[in-house]
């Protein structure tokens, strides 16, 4: 088995749990947040820096790497691990979410999806088989089934058709898969409809994937809908399978996801807002590019142990961001990834000390949303 | 004395020499190349990385820091050292070169220069006194006199007037200076005219600066003109004063400058070409963004000890540069600064082993210019 999962500790008063996810490139502790390296690099970071801020499992995007540099070049470099110099485990998505997000630039049929490159407008076709072929060339430890991610909102009928197609395509992905050293995860769809989530889960469980993602969330729906879907979907997944909530990375959603039994998360949020000059602090978000910080010589957050906060002031970081200096983006990215990965570390600790609900309530009482 | 210089070893068959330049923030060995941190950051690098690639003395720009964030903010942060978190010595230029380079955006009179900001078009005025006031607020170890840098080509009459003004302004800079912990260097002008270089040097020597820069070179003139000016100017400067050739950083010019007795250099070239995807290798320049490197899995240079070459391939770096990823620029910048700073280290070693001319000839016989 390329990847195996073991539940270690289950919280007494919520669905939260810790676990160990073993992969060909090492074991990682869950719940885990996966920094996103869309183009085979976590933006602005070296792999060593990603590891230093606590990153252990990173995600990369099949759609982007297929278009540039092409999966054949990555394969020649020894796969993604060799190409990007990351020694730990890697997960690639299937490209499904990206091509479905292209809107008018894509056309779906039963076999797959025709789409146009966002880089040069050239025409391409992804099918379940093609997605697996690319992901096998990229060589991640965990690869994802090619699914149809329905938008929000969508009708029950549309969502049902997407579930049916996702099930058929999941079967084709399983059949196409050849590498024994990679684990293929299924993706549960069904939008906001409980009967469809149950149907999708049952159909995918029948195929016995080594892990399950919950897809089609964090696509614009209110958070309470996301939480409700998790409430009734996650208990359907056997405890010995890891559960991955795709595209989620804000601190409140991480805590609520963990409380409902999610083991894995990924999101571009921490790195993306960093590049706009916004950072996470325990009281919420701080827009360090704002004028109010021009003469603020405190660190982004007092007591923070990250490299940025140990060495630089808000005033300096604001100057760098305003002056379009790369170091500014590096420093905010380091801080934000450290913040999220440190949160996950504290979550794991709280679970194993039976203090998770207290920890979550404390965190959320301090954290103000804007 | 804020800064002192000691000649350590003089080459037997050229003007090359090694020396020690002592500053309030430590001693550095010469000949030295100073990485440029225009906006209080060496572009794409942390201070630790600059030190790791061999940077010991860095330059920052008065014009840019005056406009953004403003010298008062830097002063409040404890000066440039505190603001940018650089513990070693720093040199600031006077802003003269930048405002004279603004062309139609500036107007010169005897008192100083009116100019418009390249950021927002606002009107500003630099005089010798203003330049010193700003540089004292920035707090570098070495500050530069506010001079008039004549363009190339220019008439003898124009160059003479610029020398006269540079001498008068140098006197005003000396009179305006108040901080005993900073050393003020004079700047020799005179364009390509020997009599004017001799006049400028004599007038500035009479003021007994602790160091002398040769300005007005590397402004578009052929290299043989630059070398000739150095040939007859440098011998006029007493051996106990450091000699700084401003704005020069290509490997051949560094070697030729050292051969003529230059102790200090600065240039944006290594970091600027890095951001365009061009790197130095022992055979010349390599444009790693070119298509020919798409499947080249060798390091930028075999045997290079820099972080980039120890960990990444040309193919990966090309991918990052093509995909506009920050890590690409980081990796090329690290390599280029390492290349130049390692060259300076080898130059110092060669001088002290009496092998400088051999080293220079060997290097230049391998290095092909384009």
Structure at a glance:
The structure is a homodimer of 370-residue chains. Chain A is of the alpha/beta class and 370 residues long. Helices cover 41% and strands 18% of the residues of chain A.
Can you describe what's shown?
The structure is a homodimer of 370-residue chains. The first copy, chain A, is an alpha/beta fold. In chain A, 41% of the residues lie in helices and 18% in strands. Chain A has an eight-stranded parallel sheet with strand order 4-14-13-12-11-10-6-5. A three-stranded antiparallel sheet of chain A has the order 1-2-3. The longest helix of chain A has 27 residues, at 326-352. Chain A starts with a strand and ends with a helix.
Question: Percent of residues of chain A in beta strands?
Answer: 15-25%
Q: Taking all residues together, what is the mean pLDDT of chain A?
A: 97
Low-confidence stretches of chain A: none
C-alpha Rg of chain A (nearest Å): 20 Å
Report how far the terminal alpha carbons of chain A are from each other.
44 Å
Counting helices, strands and paired strands, the structural category of chain A is alpha/beta
**Tally of strands of chain A:** 16
Assembly annotation? homodimer
Q: Approximately how much helix is present in the residues of chain A? A: 40-55%
Biggest sheet overview of chain A: 8 strands, parallel
| Annotation field: number of helices of chain A | 15
The best one-word shape of chain A is globular
